[in-house]
Structure formats: structure tokens, C-alpha cells
Design a protein that fits this description.
alpha+beta, GMP Synthetase, Chain A, domain 3, Ribosomal Protein S8, Chain: A, domain 1, three-stranded mixed beta sheet, globular
Length: 206
């Protein structure tokens, strides 16, 4: 697996160093991640700042390659597809054994996501967000969760009694919160500890 491509540039300040990098790479600020790696000054040479610049296209390729190698260690051959949705990379793995890569309630997807984000944070020194899916599992889950959340919200609104949902992972809970965030009649709260954290849908006060 190839190393993540990173370029180092120096200047009198961070903006000067960054500008040199952007010109050299023929990129704009939205196409790169910039990390300051040193900031020194001396009486005779003045101030010197060094930045490390990573192109987002190179980073996304690194993530795809890293994931392919991770699942290869599990004995599974896979391909990847990358789509940028709302400025967030959405990476989908396709294999002949999607069930293993998904895991019970999507737990293997969560584990692969966590391992990859930890590696990226080590490479960049900062958090980088992306969404991982396997065989469009999350797309189907999102539709099911949206349908269930709206159905339960209608029931809570009708009976004025709270309803506790089954435990869900952080991605699924976030979906429920987002889906019902603008509902005029109910609101959501999370309770419990992972992996048994759950949501209660409650009626709003009239």
C-alpha cells in the first residue's frame, strides 16, 4: 500500500507557506488539508513556518486503499466506490461477502470506520469525516429508520405517551434525531451507554 502523499512548504508565516503550496499544487483551499508542523524564529534568520499540505483527492484514495487492505486481511476481496455528498466523502465497499463486512446491526462497518478514522487522524493530526457503507446497507437502513421514526412520532403525537426505541448505534441515532428535529409535536432524547444506547421519542408540551 502506498503512503499518503504529503508536501511540505515553508514561509514567513502560515499564510505565506500555504500560498506557496497551493500555487505549486495548482489547488484552492477547499481541495487541500493544511497542517502547521513547525514555527521557529531566530535573531538573524527571522521567523519560519512549515506546513504540511495533503490533497483531498490523495487522502480519499488513501482511505479507499486502506479499507481494501483491511478487508483483505479478513480474507475478503472488495471494490470501492466514492461519491461526494454534501461535501462529505461517501465510500461504499462491494464484495462477494457483504454480510461479513456489515456484521450484526452494522457493527463491522462501525469497526472498519473507527479503525480507518484512527489511522487518518494519525496521518493528519486532525479529524477527517467520511461515511462508510457496504453494499448500500446504510441507504436501506436509512429508509427503514426514517419510516419507523415517523411512524412512532405519529403514535407519540396521538397518544401523548413517550416511546422507547430499541438500542441503536451512533449513526442510526443521529438519523432519528435529524429526521424528527423539525417535528412540531415530538422531540427526541438519547439515554444509556454504548452499545445499548437508545432513543426515547417524547411529546412536546402544548
Amino acid at each position: 500500500m502506498e503512503k499518503l502523499k504529503k508536501q511540505i512548504y515553508s514561509g514567513k508565516n502560515i499564510e505565506d507557506a500555504k500560498l506557496k503550496g497551493l500555487v505549486n499544487l495548482n489547488c484552492n483551499e477547499l481541495e487541500v488539508i493544511v497542517r502547521e508542523i513547525s514555527n521557529t524564529s531566530s535573531l538573524f534568520k527571522g521567523k519560519k513556518v512549515e506546513v504540511e499540505i495533503t490533497k483531498i483527492t490523495d487522502l480519499n484514495k488513501f482511505i479507499k486503499d486502506y479499507l481494501i487492505n483491511l478487508v483483505k486481511d479478513m480474507g475478503i476481496e472488495a471494490n470501492t466506490e466514492l461519491k461526494i455528498i454534501n461535501n462529505v466523502p461517501n465510500i461504499t465497499l462491494y464484495s462477494n461477502n457483504n454480510a461479513v463486512l456489515i456484521g450484526k446491526n452494522g457493527r463491522t462497518i462501525d469497526a472498519l470506520t473507527t479503525l480507518t478514522k484512527q489511522r487518518i487522524q494519525k496521518e493528519l493530526g486532525s479529524y477527517y469525516n467520511f461515511i462508510l457503507d457496504v453494499g448500500e446497507y446504510k441507504i436501506k437502513q436509512q429508509k427503514n429508520i426514517e419510516s419507523l421514526a415517523k411512524e412512532l412520532a405519529r403514535e407519540v403525537s396521538r397518544t401523548q405517551e413517550p416511546i422507547k426505541m430499541d438500542s441503536m448505534n451512533s449513526y442510526e441515532r443521529r438519523l432519528v434525531h435529524e429526521i424528527l428535529s423539525k417535528n412540531k409535536y415530538v422531540y427526541t432524547e438519547s439515554f444509556g451507554e454504548n452499545p445499548n444506547r437508545y432513543i426515547i421519542i417524547k411529546p412536546r408540551e402544548k
